[in-house]
Amino acid sequence: MTDRLQTRTIADFGEQWTRYPGSEGYFGSAELFNDNFRSLLTLRDVEGRRVAEIGAGAGRFVNVLAAAGAAHVVAVEPSSAFAVLRESTARFSDRITYLNVTGDALPATGDLDYVFAIGVLHHIPDPDPVVAAAFRALRSRGAFAVWLYGREGNTLYLIVVRSMWWVTRRLPHRALEWFVRLLYVPFWWYMTACRWIPLPLARYMRRVMLPLTPQARRVVIYDQLNPAYAKYYRRHEAIELLTSQGFADVRIHHRHGYSWTVLGIKP
To answer: Taking the CB of residue 246, how many other CB atoms lie within 10 A of it?
Structure first.
């Protein structure tokens, strides 16, 4: 069951990033990357470093890492969006190793300074082999940086989105695309109201969603409704995800009150 669920999730993301490859504006920016990891690291830390991204998708953060001066980037993407990844990052290809494999197949080189998993591990039913692969790929004192959906701060949101999953996870992509366009209208009103009213997730709406283009916002909504599997982590689960595979000095940040940024060090 786990293997079938993982296969379907990879296929869903392959179609998603093939249909929506763009990363214009804030969606594929250094500012958004730094916002993800602000309290734990910044792009200045990757300059001259060897890094990897597990679940590179269409390449938006691979481009950000390479543009920030990373010495080399290992881009891991198992889905059919691999071709999109190569095309969208072509200008940095001399500093990128492309791997069309799942995250647990990241080579155990032991020489990477950073491994990133941004919005990926919460879509993997059994993430432990991926975290273990990141550990083996890092040098001593290298860091694994993760961004995860959080359970805390999302109670009302999860009530709403779970009521849709039974339908949206069964829709063909074209039908889901039209559903997202319809949903975007009330979402826009809610997001706009968050400018002035302290509604649930108002900080996330102001700091993350409002700076995005309308197309990028629709991609985010699509991303929430489409994947076959998504886990929302509690604080202790996010920490244990790393400590269980040997990471130490684990630090965690509750980003905008709805998600977790976690960083662990390989001893």
So the answer is: 13
Judge if 58 and 190 occupy the same domain.
no
Residue type (1 letter), 30: A
What are the tokens at 141?
Answer: 């004192």
Distance in angstroms (rounded) separating the CA atoms of residues 39 and 41: 6
The tens digit of pLDDT for each residue in 88-123 reads 999 999 999 999 999 999 999 999 999 999 999 999
Do 77 and 209 belong together in one domain? no
**H helices within the chain, ranges in order?**
2-19, 30-37, 60-67, 82-88, 128-137, 155-168, 173-193, 202-204, 214-225, 235-243
In the chain, the amino acid numbered 225 is L
- What's the whole-model pTM score? 0.95
Whose CA is closest to 187, among 155, 220, 154? 220
Does residue 132 sit in the same domain as residue 184?
Answer: no
Same domain, 59 and 87: yes
If asked whether residues 123 and 189 sit together in one domain, one would say: no
**Does 25 lie in the same domain as 113?**
yes
- Torsions phi, psi of 150, nearest 5? -105, 145
